[in-house]
Amino acid sequence: MTLNGLESLIPDSRRVIFDSDIEEKYLSDTLGRLKGRAKALVFPESVREVSDIMKYAYDHKIPVTPRGAGTNLVGSTVPADGGIVLDLSRMNRVLEIDKDTFTATVEPGVVLKDFQELVEQEGLFYPPDPGEKTATIGGNISTNAGGMRAVKYGVTRDYIRGLEVVLADGSVAELGGKVVKDSSGLSLKHLMIGSEGTLGVITKAIVKLIAKPQESLSVLLPFNDLHTGIRAVLNVIRGNLDPTAIEFVEKKVVALGEEYVGLAFPYQDAAAYILLTFDGDDLEEIYKRVEKLRIIAKESGAKDALVLRDGETIDTVWKIRGALVKAVEAKSEQEPVDIVVPINKSAEFIEYINDLEQKTGVQMVSFGHAGDGNVHLCVVRGGRTQEQWEKDRKEVLASAYDKSSELGGLTSGEHGIGLSKKKYLKKAADPLNLQMMKQVKLSLDPKNILNPNKIFD
Amino acid sequence: MTLNGLESLIPDSRRVIFDSDIEEKYLSDTLGRLKGRAKALVFPESVREVSDIMKYAYDHKIPVTPRGAGTNLVGSTVPADGGIVLDLSRMNRVLEIDKDTFTATVEPGVVLKDFQELVEQEGLFYPPDPGEKTATIGGNISTNAGGMRAVKYGVTRDYIRGLEVVLADGSVAELGGKVVKDSSGLSLKHLMIGSEGTLGVITKAIVKLIAKPQESLSVLLPFNDLHTGIRAVLNVIRGNLDPTAIEFVEKKVVALGEEYVGLAFPYQDAAAYILLTFDGDDLEEIYKRVEKLRIIAKESGAKDALVLRDGETIDTVWKIRGALVKAVEAKSEQEPVDIVVPINKSAEFIEYINDLEQKTGVQMVSFGHAGDGNVHLCVVRGGRTQEQWEKDRKEVLASAYDKSSELGGLTSGEHGIGLSKKKYLKKAADPLNLQMMKQVKLSLDPKNILNPNKIFD
Question: What residue stretches are annotated with the FAD-binding PCMH-type domain (chains A, B) (predicted)?
Fold first, then answer.
C-alpha cells in the first residue's frame, strides 16, 4: 500500500516523510527496544492538518500512532501495525496564560520543562512533575503522568480542564473548558486522559495552574537499616504533614546516583533514606510541620532529620535523586516498572522486592514515590545474555506484578500500559474490565485505527 | 407486560413492590414535578441481588432506573420509560474506614450527612459538601456532586478511588481501588462518575478521606451595591488565599433566608455580601490569610470584613445561607439552575441575570458558588398560571443558558442533566459530543436499559 495523496494534505513537503526516509527514533519509544514500522511520518502544525490526516487515515483504514517527544517507557509510541506516525511536537505553542481563571491553553507539543519555567516566571505553578521533563504536555495527558509532587498535588488528570481532540474520523471534539465544575453528561474528557492515543489525538489542552508556592524546603531522614526506613514511611504519611513529596531510597541505590553525578549525599552513614519536600507561602508554618516531622522521625528510628533549604546541599540531593534511572542505565540495560500499591503497602512491597532480589539474583533497584504507593523498579540486566535476560526478567516481573495484585495494586501508576505492559495488565485486570475498555474503544474508533493494539489486543 | 419471576430474585417479598402499590415518590425526583411509571420497585440489599435484577432486566429488556435518596433536581430518578425502579437506600453500610490509606469503603445508600459525621468522629474529613446532606454517596457519585467546599477541595469525582459497578447485563466490575495513582488503561471509573446511572449501578465505592482540618473560620464582606460586590469576587479569587468557599449573595436574597429562619445577618446595611470560609490546622496561619483578605476587601470596596469564628453569629450566617433554596420554595415553586461559567465570568453572568430579571419581570434569585463559577439560580414562579409559567420560564432559561454558552460555560456544574436539562444540553453542547456520549453509552449498555433517555435521547 502506498499513501497516495497524503502529501497533498500538508503544504510543506518536508513535513511528510515516507518509508525508508523515516528515522528509526520515530518508530520506537525512549527505550528503543521495541521497533515498529511506518509508511509515513507527518508533522502537523494545526488541528486542521491533524483532522485532514485522520480523515485520510479513516477513509483508507490506515493505523495512526500519535507521538510527542517520544519519551514514553512502554511502547505507546511504537507504530506496531505500521501506517502513519503523527508527530505533534511542532504544535508547541502556549496559546494563553489566563491569570484570572488560573489556566493555560497549550498545544500538545509544548515541552513540560519549558512550560513549567514559563508559568513560574508569571508567578504561577503547574504541579504535575514526572521525572522526564522533556516530555510533552500532550504525552503527559495521554499517560496521565504523575511524578513526585503527586502526594500533595495529584497527577496530570487533576490539572486538565479542557481538551480539543481529533477523533478517528477526523472530527474535532471540544471537551470540558475553562470551567471548574462539570456535571454535564458523560465525562469524555476524563475518558481521553490516560487513553494513550487510542481514542483521539489531543490537539489542545486547557490546564489548571495554581499560584506558585513562595517557599519550599526538603528534609532528609537517614536510617540505619532498610526495614526501619521503609516502616517509617507509613508513620510519616499518617502524620498528616501535607508534604509535597515523600521519596524512599536505599543507600545502595543512592550510591549509584552519587557515582553517576560525582556528588555525595550530605549524610553518608545510613542504609536508607526518606526524602521529603514541603512547600507553602509561609515559612514559619512550614517549619511547624517540619518540627512535627522531627518527632515522628525520631519515634520511627530515623538517625537525624536534616533540613535542606537553599544552596548546594539541596541541589546535590535532588540532582542525585533525579539521576537514579540514568545512573542505572549507564551501567546496564534495565526494564522500568511503575507498579502502584495502596500507600500502606509500599513497605511490604519494597521488602518483597528485596527478598525477590536475594532469591533470584536479579538486581531490582527500587526507589520512587513511597508517599503515593507508586514504587519504581529498575530491573537490571547486568551481564546476562539476551536469552537469560528474557527468562529472568519474565520470572521476576511475573512475581512483582502478582505481588502487586495481591496487595490491591495496579499495573501502572504513571507510565501507562502501551505495548510492554499489556500482558501484565491482561493478567492483573479482570477480563470484564478489558472487555469494557475494548467496547468503549470501538465505540469511538470503530475501524480501530487509533494507536491500535495498545493497552489491550 | 408483567414481571414474572422478579420476586423470586429477592428473598423478602416486602422488598419487591409491584404496579399500583408503588408510592408516588419513587416515580419522581425531589421536586416531584416530573412523574414516571414503573412495573416494579425493588430494594436490593447486596451486589448479588443487584446483579440478579440486572440480569433479569437484561434478558427481558426492561428499563431500570437506579435511585438513592431521590434528592436529585433534574429528573435523573424519574422512571420515564417504565420498568424497574432500583432503590439502593438499603445498601447503606460503611464497610471500612481505613486510616492508613485515608479511605473509606461504603455502600451506595450511605447518607452523606451520616458519613460526614462518622468520619469526623475519627478525625477524618470527607470534603465534598453539596447542599443536600440527605443525599446518598451513590447519588453524589452519579451526578458528580460539588458544593461549597469545591473551591479548595474539588468535587465528588476527586474523592473517588474505586467503584464496584453492576453493568447492564448483571456483570460486576471493579474499577480503580485503594491506590492513589492509576495509569492502567482507559479510565472506566471516571467514565462512571457523573453518568447518572446510565452506564451501571454503583454498588460500592472506595472514597478518599483527608485529615480533618483543626481550625476554621468565616469572613463576611458586606458591600454597598451589587456591582461592587460582584466585581470584588474576582479580586478575592486572584488574591490566592486558599479559601474553602467563596459565596456571593445579594441582600435581597439574604432577606428571604432571614425571614424563613427567623434570624438576621450580623451586618444589615449592605446590598450584597461575599461570604468566605478558611480552614487549616494552624489558626495563626489562617489569620495571616485573613489579613491579606482585609486588604483586598478594602481595596475592592467592601464596607467591612467581619471575622466569624465560634458561636452564634457564624451559625446564624450559615443557617441563613443554607436555607436559601428552602426559603424561596416556601414562597413559590421554583426551577433550579446550576450553570457553571469560568470563574472570571461569574460577575458578568450574575449581572446579566439581574438585567434579565429587570427586563422580563421573572424573579431569578441568584446565589451560590461564586468562587468556582457555579452560579445557582432559582427561577421563581410566583403567581403565574401554569401556561404563563411555562412560557416565561422557557424564555428566561433559554437566555440564561445562551449567555452561559457565550461565556464558555456549561449546562450543569453539579446537579447533572437528567430529564429536565436535556434540551439545554442539546442546545449548548456540540452534536458531536452528544453523539460520542451515545456511542459510549451503547457500547456498555447495548439494549439501552440503564436509566434510558437521561442526559440525551
Answer: 34-212
pLDDT at position A63, please? 98
Let me know if residue A445 belongs to a domain.
Answer: no
Do residue B313 and residue B416 come from a single domain?
no
Q: Are B197 and B103 found together in one domain?
A: yes
Taking CB atoms and an 8 Å cutoff, what residues of chain A touch B413?
A: 179-183
SS3 A104: strand
Tell whether B433 is within 8 A of chain A (Cβ).
yes
Residue of A nearest to B418 (CA): A185
Q: Does residue A454 lie in a domain region? A: no
- Whole-angstrom CA distances from A105 to A95, A99, A101, A159, B240 are 5, 11, 11, 12, 20
Q: How many helices (H) and strands (E) does chain A have?
A: 14, 18
Asked if the C-beta of A74 comes within 8 angstroms of chain B's C-beta atoms, the answer is no
- pLDDT band of residue A311 (cuts 50, 70, 90) is confident
Mean local confidence (pLDDT), B363-388: 92
> What are B144-184's pLDDT values in tens digits?
999 899 999 999 999 999 999 999 999 999 999 999 999 99
Residues of A in contact with B188 (CB under 8 A): 433, 436-437, 440
Here the CATH number for the domain that contains residue B360 is: 3.30.70.2740
Instruction: Specify the CATH number for the domain of residue B45.
Output: 3.30.43.10
DSSP A188-219: HHHHHTTSTTSS-EEEEEEEE-EEPPSEEEEE
B89-102 confidence digits (pLDDT tens): 999 999 999 999 99
Same domain, A242 and A152: no
Is residue A228 located within the same domain as residue A286? yes
- Which amino acid, residue B161? R
Residues B21, B39 within the same domain: yes
Percent of chain B with pLDDT over 90: 90
DSSP A114-163: HHHHHHHHTTEE---B-S-TTSBHHHHHHHT--BTTHHHH--GGGGEEEE
**Is B407 in CB contact (< 8 Å) with chain A?**
no
Minimal Cβ distance to A187: which of B178, B191, B411: B191
Cα A193 from chain centroid (whole Å): 13
Number of folded domains that form chain A: 4
Q: Which strand (E) or helix (H) includes residue B192?
A: helix B188-192
| Cα–Cα distance, A235 to A433 (Å, whole number) | 34
Shared domain for B35 and B76, answered yes or no, is: yes
pLDDT digits (tens, 9 = 90+) for B244-267: 999 999 998 999 999 999 999 999
In terms of domains, do A13 and A66 share one?
A: yes
Chain A positions touching B195 (Cβ under 8 A) are: 186-187
Would an 8 Å CB–CB cutoff place B97 in contact with chain A? no
Residues B272-302 pLDDT 10s: 999 999 999 889 999 999 999 999 999 999 9
Q: Which amino acid is at B342?
A: P
Where is the domain boundary, B281, B296, B324?
B324
B448 located within any domain: no
CATH number of the domain encompassing residue B269: 3.30.70.2190
pLDDT band at A1 (very low <50, low <70, confident <90, very high): low
Q: Is residue A444 part of a domain?
A: no
Q: Structural domain of residue B24, as residue ranges? A: 6-87
pLDDT per residue as tens digits for the range A145-163: 998 999 999 999 999 999 9
B374, B413 contact by CB (below 8 A)? yes
Average of per-residue pLDDT values in chain B: 95
**Looking at chain A, how many residues does it have?**
457
In terms of domains, do B99 and B200 share one? yes
Find residues 296-355 of chain B whose CB sits inside 8 Å of chain A: 338, 340-344
Q: Which CATH number goes with the domain that contains A136? A: 3.30.465.10
B195 touches chain A (CB under 8 A): yes
- ipTM here: 0.96
- Domain boundary among the residues B264, B298, B324 is at B324
